[in-house]
Amino acid sequence: MTVLASAVPVTLIGGAPFPRSDLDAALNIGRTVAAADGGADQALAHGLLPEAVFGDFDSLSAHAKAVIPAERLHRIAEQDSTDFEKSLSRIRAPLVVAVGFSGARQDHFLANLSAMARRVGPPCILIAGSDVITLCPPRIGMDLPAGTRVSLFPMGSASGISEGLKWPIDGLKFASDGRVGTSNEAMGPIDLAIDGPMLLILPGSCLGLLAAAI
């Protein structure tokens, strides 16, 4: 199913609004550019020509279809997944940094988080407002500044152990309809061991540290 294979991280652009600063932060990590449906128009507006565009093309403009080479346009007609999921499932790369997938339709945003929790495609960091979000790997360590907000949101049953958090999670049982772990705090470097689908949410300033860690 792979359509875009990249040896370096990929920036994936969606159709929701985002500031240029978010795109620049993503491009600083992922120099290969892909887009999901109408995200191709956003890429073009910022002077970028995507290597691949995925989606059902219900929001892709005629202009984008005309200027992007036909072999880079990959129409996927099925309606059982979002364009984000369609894109992730067809990219092979060490990391995807996604921008333009939050802040518009919240049903799409929640579906995108679900796709991340189900480990669709390569590891992914989603830039969302002032935060960055990823599916926490089984083990992760980061040298975070003391006082950094660290939120853990379960997408199912999850548990873990931690070092360096103000409120340790050892022995706690998390669930999306039960205990969640919002607004914890790093005391300095942290080390997490997670069992189960858990989203790790950090301030946007931690993007580089998070990308290096996963």
From TrEMBL:
Q: What are the recorded GO MF terms, alphabetically?
A: thiamine diphosphokinase activity
SMART domains in alphabetical order: TPK_B1_binding
- Keyword annotations for this protein? ATP-binding, Kinase, Nucleotide-binding, Transferase
Q: Residue ranges of the Thiamin pyrophosphokinase thiamin-binding domain?
A: 141-198
Q: Which InterPro entries match?
A: Thi_PPkinase, Thiamin_PyroPKinase_B1-bd, TPK, TPK_B1-bd_sf, TPK_catalytic, TPK_catalytic_sf
Q: Give the enzyme's EC designation.
A: 2.7.6.2
> Top enzyme class of this protein?
transferase
UniProt xrefs under NCBIfam families: thi_PPkinase
Query: Could you tell me what this protein is called?
Result: Thiamine diphosphokinase
Q: Which organism is it from?
A: Paracoccus aurantius
